[in-house]
Prior knowledge:
Shape: globular
Helix content: 40-55%
Strand order of the largest sheet: 3-2-1-4
CATH class: Alpha Beta
Strand content: 5-15%
Number of domains: 1
Largest sheet: 4 strands, mixed
Number of helices: 7
CATH topology: Nucleotidyltransferase, domain 5
CATH architecture: 2-Layer Sandwich
Amino acid sequence: MAHGKNQRRKYARREHGLTDYRRRLKLLRGGEPRAVVRVTNTQVICQLVGYEMDGDKILATSSGSNLVSDYKWPKKASRKSVPACYLAGLVLAKQATAAGHDSAVLDIGLAAASKGNRVFAALKGMVDGGLEIPHGEDILPDEERLSGSHISDKMSKSVAASKKAIEGA
């Protein structure tokens, strides 16, 4: 888009719509680690990321595939559903508090910030796990959705079993 000697091209990640550098700079100015939540086509990924001059450093991480291998999540169940996002956030909080991190700021990237979506389900998991993250209570999903009872009774039992395995670990 930028042509001519007086114009400068945008950064490649901005040009492709991958990074909002204004929002990123605001998050970095606080000095707190970022609780990054990304929902991909197949799973949710939650990370606690610290800023360093030579690049971001991953302090703790959890994903939907970790739920299946480590925390009794059913293999055929969705790894990016609202209950899966909640449990991934809970796992991240347990890892972060074990590593000595007690607060963070939420980074949802370019995801839409609509009430009760999967990103905020992960936020609820992080808050329930012990991380202090600034948020409003009205943005979080209902307990019915977090427990998986809106999907089926079998799913709510799976969520309870996985939550027990996370808290026992």
